[in-house]
Amino acid sequence: MDSLITAAARALAAGDPLGALDRVALRDDAPALALRGIAMAQLGDLPRAKALVKRAARAFGPKEALARARCVVAEAEIALASRELGWPVKALEAARFTLEAHGDRVNAAHAQYLQIRRWLLIGRLDEADARLAALDPAPLPPALRAAHELVVAGIAIRRLQSQAARQALIRAGHFAHEAGIPALTAEVEHALLVLNTPAARLIAHGEERPLLLQEVEAVLGSTSLVVDACRYGVRAAGMSVSLATRPVLFGLARALAEAWPGDVSRELLIRRAFRLKLSDESHRARLRVEIGRLRKALKPLAGIIATPHGFALVALVSSDVVVLAPPVEEQYAALFAFLVDGESWSSSALALAVGSSQRTVQRALDALAAGGKVQSFGHGRARRWMTPPVPGFATTLLLPAPLPSD
After folding, report:
1. Strands, E, within 194-295: which ranges?
2. pTM of the full structure
3. What's the pLDDT at 206?
């Protein structure tokens, strides 16, 4: 490897893409193409970075397995940054095995962190946690140790473990400072904002107030009966009932919880649960059926009694009832939880992340674009969607993840 390639690689490792390009911008040999691609990725030109890395992978000969494996890892990182979550995982795993076989343990570990970050984005926390536990970050350079702690913090935030997340981010900040890479330091500082901005709203006794993530954790660990509109469940006394697949029942539960200890009229319950402006006797009959189903689903956490005007919730294992609501409540709020990271997403990646069909997500994005809430650029398969962050709110609780203790 010549001196210019070595110097460019060192510049990239230090987070200086312009310094790297000064040395290799006019070269078209395979190592230079790879370094140019990584430099363009650090500068944010991801389409050009992807093209350069692909050219580099083709330019390396069949006997240069190590170099080709490094290109595969670089391409996977660019895909992750581009939110192309459907990239071939098997190719990344094969590249990791090649790197380990050639003794390149740093890049092999980097490949594993890319897979873990992908799992984290699509809510597969158990797989991410298991792979992370098998990694020893001690021998890794500071930049990768910072990445390790960022992933630890990401998992803790999704699981509403605020203290563990804060400690991990403090460690990540230390390693980022040691690495001396400004972009990495900025990423840690951005992650810390999640812990210091409202992540949910508490509705109780007719009043509403914002909650930080640590306060959400405290509410879910309290003795109150919590109707969680972020995860669509009901929790109390260490038990939980998921109503995520039963939206009518959850709508009734939330309406009753918001009115507790008072009752809710039958007409209002019909409007809230069935989304109807007018009601007749058939709707009242359906309401009685759904209330019976809800009463059965909530045992032994709560009961429902009939009143002269409607129905009221009765807490059986708690002395208080509260509603935990998302910071932003509107149609397609779950898409905002992903778009709020400021990155550009493809509709296929969003569909994979939210667990829906690509056509459903595309219709939602078209509706949001018509209202001026999101914007797109590119055409066809290169089309990407993005939106500015929602000011003053963290959308952690809108992202896919199991309830604590589930």
Report:
1. 200-204, 207-211, 225-228, 233-236, 239-242, 263-265
2. 0.75
3. 85
